[in-house]
Amino acid sequence: MLARGPDATLRLARAHPGATIRTDSAARAARLRAALGRDRVLLSHAPVLDDALEAELDLLAGPEVPLPGGGRLLVHPTPALTAIDVDAGSAAGTRDPQAQLRLNRAAVAEAARQIRLRNLAGPILLDLAGLTAKRREALAEPLAAALAPDPLARLLGLGPLGLFEILRQRIHPPLHEILGWPPSPLSHGLAALRRAAREAAARPGRHWALRAHPAVLGALQDLPGALSEAAEAIGTPLQLRPDAARAPSHPEIEEAAHG
Predict the structure, then answer these.
(1) Does the keyword RNA-binding apply (predicted)?
(2) Torsion angle (degrees, nearest 10) of CA 58, 186, 27, 48
(3) N or C: which end of the chain has fewer CB within 10 A?
């Protein structure tokens, strides 16, 4: 017999023992306090996934990550490996070699961060922007330092094609497999339920409806507990309004009449 392991919250809590856990669910708070102690778990009376965090989740669900000062990372998972490309943007045409070096230093740090946030696993190739092989070698140490806090990741070195080769151990599925790539109807539906909870908290006492493509509504109905937990958070059942003309990526929360 195999026993079910800890869920994602408990795994992260044990990996980061100094972190405080915030939840907006009283039942979840009670369960976590029993496992982690009362002092580590805070019960919030407002939705913990606010608009700023949702924007971060949207960013993690897509392939583009903006870099400070311009440029971007492009993250491309494939069945065999994940390719991360640095697009220099406006810095590509500059004659200042230091500008490209600064961009790639920022890209190295952000790539290591995205690898961990997205839980990427297996072979990972990082292609920097516009640097000679010798100048790329100079960024091996900053990349190794950026990866060092991640016990699952290991920098193998700079390959013959000028790509940094990283190997990261796979223990749980990466984020793009959970959300879908592009995001699945279920991912869009769960994001809409979180949005409904925020709307209800901001304007209590009202009734709400979810207008969405039938695939989104069907995915939510097939996930045990999704709609019942949303109703508990909102304070009233969410009316479901199928709309085949609406793209699955654009569900809408709208106020509904009472009754």
Answers:
(1) yes
(2) 10
(3) N
Could you tell me if 66 and 19 lie in one domain? no
Do residue 81 and residue 138 come from a single domain?
yes
Number of domains in the chain: 3
Say yes or no to pLDDT of 259 above 60. Answer: no
**8 A C-beta contact, residue 174 and residue 121:** yes
Retrieve residue 223's tokens. Answer: 């996930």
pLDDT in tens, 89-141: 766 666 666 778 888 999 999 999 999 999 999 999 999 988 888 888 999 99
Structure confidence at residue 110 (pLDDT) = 97
Range of the domain at 126: 62-176
The structure's pTM equals 0.86
pLDDT in tens, 156-165: 999 999 999 9
- How much is the pLDDT for 130? 80
Last residue of a domain, one of 176, 203, 234: 176
Neighbours of 50 (CB within 10 A): 12
Average pLDDT, the chain: 91
